[in-house]
Amino acid sequence: PTMAHSQALLVLENFIGGKFFPCSSYIDSYNPATGDVYCRVPDSGKEEVEAAVKAAKDAFPIWSSKSPLERSQILNKLADLIEHDLEAFAQAESKDQGKTITFARTVDIPRAVHNFRFFASSVLHHVTECTEMPAMGCVHYTSRAPVGVAGLISPWNLPLYLLTWKIAPAIACGNTVVAKPSEMTSVTAWMMCKLLEKAGVPPGVVNVVFGTGAKAGEALVCHPDVPLISFTGSTLTAQRITERSAPHCKRLSLELGGKNPAIIFDDADLSQCIPTTVRSSFANQGEICLCTSRIFVQRGIYSEFLKRFVAEAKKWKTGNPSDPTVSVGALISKEHLEKVRNYVKKAQAEGARVLCGEGMDPLALPPGNQKGYFMLPTVIAEVKDESCCMQEEIFGPVTCVVAFDTEEEVIKRANGVKYGLAATVWSSNVGRVHRVAHRLQSGLVWTNCWLVRDLNLPFGGMKASGIGREGAKDSYEFFTEVKTITIKH
Ligand code: NAD
Prior knowledge:
Layout lengths: L2 H6 L1 E2 L2 E3 L2 E3 L4 E6 L4 E7 L3 H20 L2 H17 L1 H12 L3 H22 L7 E4 L4 E9 L2 E5 L5 H14 L3 E5 L6 H13 L6 E3 L4 H9 L6 E5 L2 H11 L5 E5 L4 E5 L5 H13 L9 E7 L3 H13 L19 H16 L3 E4 L21 E4 L6 H4 L6 E7 L2 H8 L4 E2 L1 E5 L3 H10 L4 E4 L14 E2 L2 E2 L4 H7 L1 E9 L1
Parallel strand pairs: 1-5, 8-9, 8-11, 9-10, 11-12, 13-14, 13-19, 14-17, 16-17, 19-20
Antiparallel strand pairs: 2-3, 4-5, 6-7, 7-23, 12-22, 15-16, 18-21
């Protein structure tokens, strides 16, 4: 960038021990809707991570000895402050990530607020266990204590939403944290740092180090004073994190990718199922780990489903994320757009049929968005189960629709991938719904709906979709260390 240009750029700073620090080098961050560099993100490494871990370690004794109620009040205050600035956060998230302003306003930021409120409340309601052994004259009980400095690493698709889903339980339980958001979407985390002091979060309790996974992320994963890592991102990165953290025997929570099936039986209520399945395929440009990307439709309704599904998908307007009539914004990066487009090309080369979207329909973009990373919602039919489009996570606005005959067959095919995160089942037969839900290898099964979440209950994946669960009780267990104490009287 030229000098004049660079002055206009937003420059982020690391947040360590309650203070902002510039970094010696920076990474360019793009506005996906225009293709312009608009922000510079610190390119932190070992040194910055070292300082952040030290600050978190120093803050731990005081923060961990506060009562849950004191911590709860601070979390609630932080929730109020983010909510007060909801519009500014939503605008920033949309500009940084490419998602529509509507999605940021109604999903991302409200959920970030809710994450703090939810854990502020839930942390007050845990009880420990107690057993008695009268014959031995003993009482046993468990106690739980925060672990220490938690390393939190989050992806670019739901930036503040997923980062706060980790920060909130970690600090509610009395840990201190070093967080590393995705280098592609760091702005809202930085904005949140500016509110911490006012909320009453003591310096060093929440530290945010910006940078790449290879430098800042690995430094955090390898740091001997960080005993637990909570990671959300791709399966490949999780493998690397597992390897790098193994010498330290760290506690890991891994929330990874998916290749989520929707199973639609011929007795499904299509008037509900079709709009919901379009949403589950294309919400947030298909960049949600829970998005549907394999749709199995029972043969009797297959052609009717396909016709109505494509018509519904075509209603989703792609374009400027700030336009309230737009449902599909920009993809995160040029490279990612290329990767997603390549999947469509590969499917075509294998003989699959593209019914709408990429290469089929015109994409009309406003003048300011010509260089943005846009792609139309794309529906592919007649794809083989072995095809990479049916096996690999695409993470874009692309979904495959195939026919099936029997319940037995579809369960086998739905389970025939390495992932196991989320599935949806559509049927009005309640017995079948339970039967199928029990047999699917999937951490979450939604029947006759999608993305309805109760944060109390476990969230997470099976197989290559992850290890561990997050939720009221699950996050509490992850972020605390349990001890069994025996008293002889
Ligand atoms: P990614 O794995 O590339 O990156 C995630 C984070 O890890 C980023 O902050 C990145 O900088 C960091 N990272 C990368 N390499 C690292 C390393 N060697 N050591 C430490 N940190 C490293 O994932 P992404 O592309 O940002 O996100 C998309 C992926 O996230 C998809 O696979 C999606 O399914 C998954 N995801 C899962 C969930 C879930 O809850 N299961 C939710 C959202 C996204």
